């Protein structure tokens, strides 16, 4: 007999349980097939009316309802993962959805695309954020996934610039967690005198560094990747970066998840030509600008306060044109088709020198 | 009213269909919860007997059975994707499975881990293949996913060496497609005189290059990544590489999927301490060596022929020890617990100077 092989286990206790699971799987398959046929009918109706197959707000509602009626034992995140694949499969029956994103180097962008659309899509990795926009604008891809806010990289400015000039709408948003690690050549801090990272990463790991490596001097680097590259050449240098950088530069983690905020995340937005309907839990993004005079920003925001609309994000960027001082990227809670939001937006439009609505989209409840 | 916004669509045709889908979703949720409770019972039985929760052969059987009884409209691959998440969710209820793999740089390894285990796992990216083995051997991860055969990279020799010295078994196998692209600075072949790539990649794209770029000289590079890096500095140089390299080095694709074999793939194996039971469609991997004398290899293989066992892979590697000339990595169709295979293996063992069984594992039917 071959060695290293345990005998066949006694399955008398497991066999009846497995039969019942097989039986349930058969029933599940029938129901899922029935659901797919209904989705095909929905697709035919939409097709006849020239409407898009993918409705992010409808999928958000389905997931929210399931989270509400779920009595366990599976946690909400597992139910979500199963239905994501189920909806992805039903969608793909109609017409395979093509999704563009920033290519494999930004593994996070691909992960975001799969987390939003499930696995039954045609992925279209692009060499740049510009290409993601171009591909969706030209119809090569139905949707694009772009990073919009990243705790350590500056590159999302490119996304903001492209949103400004594009005719595409934001139709969904999601966030993925980001983890910082302390990396050295040996996997220990022995002999290490300095730690390098992007200033934002250093700031995000301040508490951990003060507690665990108070004697190590902090050095700013152009990026966490550059810091890891330098650490790979310098035994006395540690770097803060992701495990990807450890793999790439042959470094070892001294500690993982050292960022002070365990909920450190990168936010992505989905761009496309779909105009969503209200899902019940939506945000609306817009870009504004006002003439450069005292009190202008305060005045600009008055309509939001008057209509009881809350801002969830307010970011200013210097304008390149010189025509205005700043552009303001603003997210508000609510959908542009809700009367209260529509009224506030209309008032904003009349008060601003520049006004662009980027879209309303469902957010996770 | 805000601009760029279509009116709310008339949903009178869609609403009844969506109600039926919601109704089915409710039934699905009940069945899935019942399935999860049964999986918990299975887990309790296994736990009492000290058996592992993850049985790759059982999951392979569940998927094979579903593929068989599935009458559509969803294709087998969609059913597979849904059940992968369902089984992943049920498994995670018991004890979250921790899976080690070669870190984010090899995006493919992470994709392979998710394709094998579904999303409800604790992922453990490692800096090297050695670390993947160490982590599983030390119990830090329950399973590891390692590349074993890669059409363009030589690094899998490391996996073969580590398998030789490890006490872990191969308990599953899967393959992911690999796509070669022709990349240049401009996205065209204008002014391009040379194309660089790893020799294997050049060979794999021979037909395409002869048909579409016969005037371009072919140049061997250390790796496709190195070729892309060189092309980023040289306007007259094209590179063959993946889209990841395009993103990393700012190159543009002239053409995608130019490999002559559209089924170009990387094969991964899952390593762990689980000894699988026969699933009905299994392979068995082993390492052999024979003394260096004429006819030794032929003699070595005789037991396989005598017992009617077919080889699915035969690979030789020079031994480093000098004690034997070569090691042979052999895969055969069948499970080591099938009497015919067991008899052949026993006969092989008596004829070889070195014999190591790496494991039996389910393969996709």
TrEMBL record, chains A, B:
Pathway: Metabolic intermediate biosynthesis; prephenate biosynthesis; prephenate from chorismate: step 1/1; Amino-acid biosynthesis; L-phenylalanine biosynthesis; phenylpyruvate from prephenate: step 1/1. Residues 285-362 form the ACT domain. Transmembrane segments: none annotated. The keyword Cytoplasm applies. Its EC number is 4.2.1.51, 5.4.99.5. It comes from the Bacteria. It is found in: Cytoplasm. Residues 98-273 form the Prephenate dehydratase domain. InterPro entries: ACT-like_dom_sf (IPR045865), ACT_dom (IPR002912), Chor_mutase/pphenate_deHydtase (IPR008242), Chorismate_II_sf (IPR036263), CM_dom_sf (IPR036979), CM_II_prokaryot (IPR002701), G/b/e-P-prot_chorismate_mutase (IPR010957), Preph_deHydtase (IPR001086). It catalyses: chorismate = prephenate; prephenate + H(+) = 3-phenylpyruvate + CO2 + H2O. Its main location: cytoplasm. Keywords: Amino-acid biosynthesis, Aromatic amino acid biosynthesis, Cytoplasm, Isomerase, Lyase, Multifunctional enzyme, Phenylalanine biosynthesis. One of its GO terms (molecular function) is prephenate dehydratase activity. It holds the Pfam family ACT. Residues 8-98 form the Chorismate mutase domain. Catalyzes the Claisen rearrangement of chorismate to prephenate and the decarboxylation/dehydration of prephenate to phenylpyruvate. PANTHER family: PREPHENATE DEHYDRATASE P PROTEIN (PTHR21022), PREPHENATE DEHYDRATASE-RELATED (PTHR21022:SF19). This is Bifunctional chorismate mutase/prephenate dehydratase.
